[in-house]
Every structure is written in C-alpha cells, then in structure tokens.
Structure prediction request, 476 residues.
Amino acid sequence: MFINGEWVDAASGSTFEVFNPATGDVIATMPAGDSVDAERAIAAADAAFGEWSATSPYARADILMRAWQLMGDHAEDLAHLMTTEQGKPLKASRFEVGYAADFVRWFAEEARRISGEWLPSSRSDQRFLTVRQPVGVVAMVTPWNYPISMLTRKMAPALAAGCTMVLKPAEATPLCAKAVFEIFIEAGVPAGVINMVTACDPAPIGEVFTSDQRVRKLTFTGSTAVGRLLAAKAGASLQRVSVELGGHAPFIVYPDADPEMAAKGAAALKFLNSGQACISPNRLYVHESASAAFIETLTARISRLSTGNGMNDGVGVGPLVNDAAVAKVEAQVEDARAKGAEVPVGGHRLVDDGLANGFFYAPTLLTRVTDDMTVYREETFGPVAPVVIYDDVDQVINLANDTHYGLAAYVYTQDLRTAIKAFEALRFGIIGINDVNPTSASVPFGGMADSGIGREGGHQGLDEYLETKTAGISLR
Ligand code: NAD
Prediction:
C-alpha cells in the first residue's frame, strides 16, 4: 500500500493473494488493508491538500505530462502486467495502456484551462467574480476489467484540479494500480497527494470512505449494486458523488444497414475483454430483412475467434475474471436454452488444451432470444452475443430503451435521419453510430439511470473535481 509517500504493509500485517486468471497461478501477495489503513491514508491526503491545492496549475500539468511520458516509456511492461493479472490479450492490454495514458495527457492540458468568470450585477456598483477550486480529498474505488484506464480517468483529473486522493483498487488487480502509482511517484507527485489502500474485503474501507468528513468526493466504477450502496452512504455525508456503473447496451441494426459491416462491428465489440466491458452490447436487435446475412457473418466471425492465454500469439479472447463469472455466464446461457434460444456457436466452458486451471468460456452466439430470458435483462459480463430479430422499425427504440440501465447503445444505419432520430431518442449516455468505439479521453463518458451519475473524460471530467466559488465585490 502507499501512504504518505511510503510503501507500507497493512497495519494488521494481513495479506492476500493475486491470481493469473488464465492459469490460476498465484502471481503476488499484497497487503490486506482495513479501516485503520483507510483512515491513515485519508489523514495523509488531508494533510497534503493545502500545499498541493495551492500549486500552480502549470506545475501540476508538468507533473502529469511527465507521468504521460513515463507511461509511454513503460507501455510494454504495463501491458504484460495487465495481461498476466487481468487476462485480456496482449494486443488489448497495449491498447488500454495507450487509452489510459491519453487521459493523463488530456487532463495535463486541461489543468491550465481551469478558470473563472467576471460577471455583472443588477447593481451598477457591484461586480461578481467566480473561481473554481479543488473539492478536497477524493476517495476512489476502481474495477478490475480496465484496471489502468479506469484509474487514470479518475486520477488525472483529480490531480489536475488540485485534489489529493486515496484509492482502493479492485482486489483482482492491485498490481496494475501499484504500477500506475510508481509512474506518478517517479513523475514527481509529492508525498501524501496520492495514497493507495489494497484490500481483499472492500466493505470496511468503503464504510470509512463514505463516512469520514475529510473526504469531500467519492468516485466509484463498478457494479450498480455496490455503486448504489456507496452513493447512498456518501450522500448521507453530503460528499460529492460520481458513480460509473453497469450497462445493458442495445445494438440496433436497421433494415438499410450493411448487415455484414454491422456483424463485423458486433463481433469486434462483443468479445472485447471477453465481454467484460460495461459498454458491451447485450441485446443485438436485427431487422428481419438483414437477419440472415447478419447471423451468417457473425457466426463465421465467432467461429474464427481463438480463446486462450492472452500472452499467446493469435489469441483474441482471454479468460473471465474468476469462476463465479464463468458460472454466471453458464446460468444465463442455460436459462436462454431452456426458454427456447438456439446456440449455433459456443455455449460451454473451455477446459481442454491447457485451459482447465483458468476461467474460460467459449465465445457464444444466442439466437431466438426473447424478453423473458435472464440474458435479456441482466448484464452478462461474458462472451455471449444474444440476437433478437424484430420487424417493426417504429418499435425498436422502445425495445432498446426498455431497461433500467442507460450507459451505451449502438445504431447501424446508412440513413442520416434514422441515425439522428435514434441518437436523440435513445436514453443512454454514449451512442455509437456505425461505430464500435464511441469513447476517447476528449469526450464525456457516463450513464443515465442505473448506469450512474457524472461524467469522466472531456472537459466535463475535470468539473467533477472542482467547486465554484463566488465573490461579490462592492465598488461603493
Ligand atoms: P464490484 O462493484 O463488485 O467491484 C468494483 C469495485 O468496488 C472493486 O474495487 C471492489 O473491491 C469494490 N467494492 C465492492 N464492494 C464494496 C464495498 N462494499 N465498499 C467499497 N468498495 C466495494 O463490481 P465488479 O463486479 O467487480 O465489476 C464489474 C462491474 O463494473 C460491472 O457491472 C460493470 O458494468 C461495471 N463497470 C462500469 C464501468 C463504467 O464506466 N460505467 C467501467 C467498468 C466496469
């Protein structure tokens, strides 16, 4: 753990093991922190806040720029570590490291643009001035599926704004968080500004994060259930809250779309990170006129995917995070089968060819999916593509919006009017229009309804860490 500029053990001396999900091997032992460690880390962040928040934004931008350069220098090591600890194929890890570094550069640039306003008054002898200042100590909780980019997407804007922070990374991926901290330390972040408490039981730390009055903001990425719990507790402490939660993305193929292009897009998107992405499509709505060509291309693409240890050349799909994740996918596929779905490809665990000690599930296509199946409502977080065939174009937006989630949605059409109408009518925060990657450091990312509160990335991502202060100035 990293507290007040030093790498330390848990106060209790407890530890926990970190596994490689492709092999089941133990790859590290980490300190198992608890509430005592969380309080020490908050105290360090609180003590460092005065000095750090008073630094020039130019100085903070310089440190972030150095961190960005160091991430580039260490990109290959970071990617290897990510594949070993999290499982995604090496190519995908390299992509994530680049994406993660981009947030650091983006917010280094944004730091120098934190400004206020000079405003008029109804009184001729009065003026107003506003400034934006850092909110204070930020508590961060991050997930394991994108262990480096989900961290820099919070850490870079918090530091750019002048906040200090305490992180609790996911128990499956503390090594990636440690590696990011090493980079920021080398870049020159002063002692106490960044702190990290690792743990295998996150609940006591979440309790301290959301009840300690020194913490002024909670930022969380993870499941809707835990996000709701922490947001409620943080709300009771009147902390600022950002929560990036789960999703259940519709992927709509209109009759005028190119069905092959749409199917290639669906295959590329659905099996990214073995389906363990919050913006992964969960319901593929394909118009009946395009369905034969779409299913044929998607079946061919899925059949060609190679699943295995992400370190091996040619592997396109890695393991799931743990056995519980595989069991959840199995249960959803069995439920769909029992209710009449067909499974033209996949539909089972993978245990042969040296995969028995890891957590592998075959890339799977489900057809004849209906709205009474669990997969139609619950997030899968696994490599399963459920296809629903529709005939009424006027109803498909209603079908897509029929969920409590509101994170990402995708639309395939060649008609600009259809695209714009769908973009406006879909109740989701991020819409891909003939596009499989509607994300970038330069744009806001976040959801509606059960998918969360707040935005990360873009200039909006910095606002989440700033308070606005107003001065009324009398000229009398
Ligand atoms: P999770 O909510 O169980 O865990 C996420 C984090 O919360 C981990 O660090 C975990 O240790 C911590 N946590 C769990 N219980 C806690 C508690 N009581 N107090 C404090 N911290 C606690 O989620 P998961 O199942 O590991 O992650 C997958 C979920 O994350 C999916 O639902 C996915 O959609 C979501 N996700 C969302 C985004 C986004 O930006 N919207 C990005 C990635 C993942």
Observations:
- The chain has 15 helices and 20 strands.
